[in-house]
Design a protein that fits this description.
alpha+beta, single chain, five-stranded antiparallel β-sheet, 2 domains
């Protein structure tokens, strides 16, 4: 798991947002998620993939009630894909999943992005690290690094990459596609 020091080393001190532990607990987060938000934090911006200041509502760190049709669940908005007004990454407070909530259609829909908040932060960190570490790489090195990264992340959170249509599969296939 990435540490706060690693995140700030990559994103800068102002590029990582944290929430005080007691405030996170009071918002309904589990102890593990409250520790992740207070001790590690979340990157504020990762081009294309994630932004805490994505246009539209809800804003990052806002509690949002979501009607699933069976019940109303509380989620904590984390941010959204960088240029998307209708999609938000949210922490499901009941199950601990990070979901991608699509608010753009007639009926909101959601997909599980990561099994835990810690996994989500790790995926963002490792994706950004890959961009930095491969900036000077040739095509074979880039492809090898990307394949190793995908394997490591799939081992960490198998659900995140188990479906070809999942968010992280799309990120790898479209943004980190092998060069051929």
């Amino acid at each position: 798991m990435a540490t706060h020091t690693e995140l700030t080393g990559l994103f800068g001190a102002d590029g990582v947002a944290r929430v005080p532990f007691d405030e996170a607990l009071a918002s309904g987060l589990s102890e593990a998620d409250a520790r992740t938000l207070s001790e590690v934090g979340v990157p504020a911006e990762l081009p294309v993939v994630f932004s805490m200041s994505a246009p539209g509502e809800p804003e990052a760190f806002t509690l949002v009630p979501v009607d699933t049709g069976e019940e109303v669940v509380e989620v904590l908005c984390l941010g959204g894909p960088a240029d998307s007004t209708g999609m938000r990454f949210c922490l499901d407070l009941a199950d601990g999943y990070v979901i991608l909530l699509d608010l753009g259609g007639d009926e909101p829909s959601a997909e599980i992005v990561n099994t835990t908040l810690a996994d989500f932060v790790e995926f963002l960190y490792r994706f950004a690290l890959r961009l930095v570490e491969t900036a000077e790489a040739d095509e074979p090195e880039l492809d090898r690094y990307t394949a190793e990264l995908r394997g490591a992340l799939a081992a960490r959170d198998p659900l995140a990459l188990s479906d070809e249509e999942s968010w992280w599969s799309m990120v790898f296939d479209r943004l980190l596609a092998p060069t051929r």
